UniProtKB/TrEMBL annotation:
Enzyme class: hydrolase
TM segment ranges: none
Gene name tied to this protein: ppx
Residues annotated as domain Ppx/GppA phosphatase N-terminal: 19-299
Molecular functions per Gene Ontology: exopolyphosphatase activity; transferase activity
Keyword Hydrolase listed: yes
Cellular localization per UniProt: Cell membrane
Catalytic activity: [phosphate](n) + H2O = [phosphate](n-1) + phosphate + H(+)
Name listed for the protein in its UniProt record: Exopolyphosphatase
Membrane-related topology note: Peripheral membrane protein
Subunit structure: Homodimer.
EC nos: 3.6.1.11
Domain Ppx/GppA phosphatase C-terminal: 306-480
Superkingdom, natural source: Bacteria
Length: 500
């Protein structure tokens, strides 16, 4: 398979999607699509535990996807899990088995990040003018975004999906006013916290993406209409469904067998959206999460990585000392480059994560200096960080949590897709960079030489500099002690210059 192909996999609550494409002159050219309705959320019980049967459906689908991915470069593939894999108690088990099949990490994205990527997918594939409202109804959640051109202005993810609503309100299989009314009422309840903000901001055009809205459009087209969704048309569809009394007996022109089980719950979610937000009309867009994932490749390659903008935004928001952040970031990057090969840290994603952690390690000063490392970790772990998936966000929080003071190993939490031993090595690099800049002065450090051998680091410094900077040397010696408690060794070696 040619190396210029990119692949995105969306592990949704109802369906798994694979899209393979090329990006030509900033435009997406789809060359293949695969889709399987695995009904993952349907197999999640009241304790949020996925059944073995549901996991098997998903894994069987991924086996087919793995065959299609054969030949693609690993860095040309993005695989993202959404609502069900965010909340399922045994999601780590599914993800472990999935990785064995795909041989590629799976990133779990937050609802906010899912909404952002959906908006990018729609904005890049649909010509729009003015402000647009984008709505995507998934199996477990619904994402709503208002934006202009390629920039989202507000976005949210609400817990109202066609699979979850089907289990909650249509489990008896009946199509009646009572079931629809209960589902719509819950949808309105879910929307209530965002209504004022969204209605006050307003929009010129409303676009809907993904399967539920596509199915509604096909039902309207089959009746000889133009496919534009309006509240009267949706109400008419509801009455047509109620007239047939049961979901399993539902027969409407344009309704496929695979969409029949969830069409009523999807319609209920749509009715709540139209009623709550006062939507007059909605058009369908082909763009969705997977297209947003594909365009994210181009943004990162062109130096427009949204994660970098997010990191700078956090630094601005918390009034971080930019000069100190820059010092620590530069030194952390320099030290990383010297040991990355020996320490097996050459994966593309490690260096930027280390540098962003260095930039943001003092975020917690906005709370207070005492336990700044804990405060920084809390802020980074619980903030909305556009562009970062959940694992990347946890890595940032983990690095800054252990950037100073004694290391309490029991407070370390493993991060999916990032081996513990690699995270500990990144932590050691960050700690060393922070320790070296304790005096917060420019042009203080000499040329640094760092070597790594297993868990031993050797830092070589000029002998004259060491004599002139006893306070910093004490700081490094203190760092030696912290490391010894972890079974690490930091050797401080002096080098004499020709002038000595």
């Amino acid at each position: 398979m040619p190396n210029n192909l990119l692949a995105a996999i969306d592990l949704g609550s109802n369906s798994f999607h694979l899209v393979i494409a090329r990006i030509l002159d900033g435009r997406l050219q789809i060359v293949d699509r695969l889709k399987d309705r695995v009904r993952l959320a349907e197999g999640m019980d009241d304790n949020r535990c996925l059944s073995e049967e549901a996991m098997r459906r998903g894994l069987d689908c991924l086996s087919l996807f793995a065959e299609r991915l054969s030949g693609l470069q690993p860095d040309a593939i993005r695989i993202s899990g959404t609502y069900t894999l965010r909340v399922a108690s045994n999601a780590p088990e599914f993800l472990r088995r999935a990785r064995e099949i795909l041989h590629h990490p799976i990133e779990i994205i937050s609802g906010q990040e899912e909404a952002r990527l959906i908006y990018q997918g729609v904005a890049h594939t649909q010509h729009t003018e003015g402000r647009i409202l984008v709505i995507d109804i998934g199996g477990g959640s619904t994402e709503l975004i208002i934006g202009e051109q390629f920039t989202p202005q507000v976005l949210t993810s609400r817990k109202m999906g066609c699979v979850t609503f089907n289990k909650q309100f249509f489990a008896n299989g009946k199509l009646n006013e009572k079931n629809f009314a209960a589902a719509v009422l819950e949808g309105l309840h879910q929307l209530e916290p965002i209504l004022t903000q969204y209605q006050s901001l307003g929009w010129d055009t409303c676009l809907g993406s993904s399967g539920t809205i596509k199915s509604m459009r096909e039902l309207l087209l089959a009746q000889g209409l133009d496919g534009e969704l309006t509240l009267p048309r949706l109400e008419q569809l509801k009455q047509q469904m109620i007239a047939q009394k049961r979901i399993d007996a539902l027969a409407l022109p344009g309704l496929t067998d695979d969409r029949r089980p969830l069409i009523a719950s999807g319609l209920a979610v749509l009715l709540a959206l139209f009623q709550g937000l006062g939507i007059e009309r909605m058009e369908y867009s082909d763009g969705a999460l997977r297209e947003g994932l594909l365009y994210s490749f181009e943004q990162r390659d062109s130096g427009q990585d949204i994660r970098a903008r997010t990191a700078f935004g956090v630094a601005e928001l918390y009034h971080i000392d930019k000069a100190q952040a820059a010092r620590v970031e530069a030194t952390a990057g320099q030290l990383f480059d010297q040991v990355a090969a020996d320490w097996q840290l050459l994966e593309e994603g490690y260096r930027p994560l280390l540098c962003w952690a260095a930039m943001l390690h003092e975020t917690g000063l906005a709370i207070n200096y005492t336990s700044v490392q804990r405060h920084s970790a809390y802020i980074l772990e619980n903030s909305d960080l556009p562009g970062f998936n959940q694992e990347e966000q946890q890595v940032l929080a983990t690095l800054v949590r252990f950037h100073r003071k004694a290391i309490k190993k029991g407070e370390f939490n493993s991060v999916l897709n990032y081996p513990d031993w690699q995270l500990w090595r990144l932590i050691r690099i960050l700690r060393l960079a922070v320790a070296l800049h304790h005096r917060r002065l420019d042009h203080l450090l000499p040329e640094l030489s760092l070597q790594a051998s297993d868990e031993t680091l050797t830092l070589t410094l000029p002998a004259a500099w060491c004599e002139q900077n006893r306070l910093l040397m004490q700081n490094l010696e203190r760092e030696q002690g912290y490391g010894q408690n972890m079974g690490w060794q930091l050797l401080l070696q002096t080098a004499h210059s020709d002038a000595d």
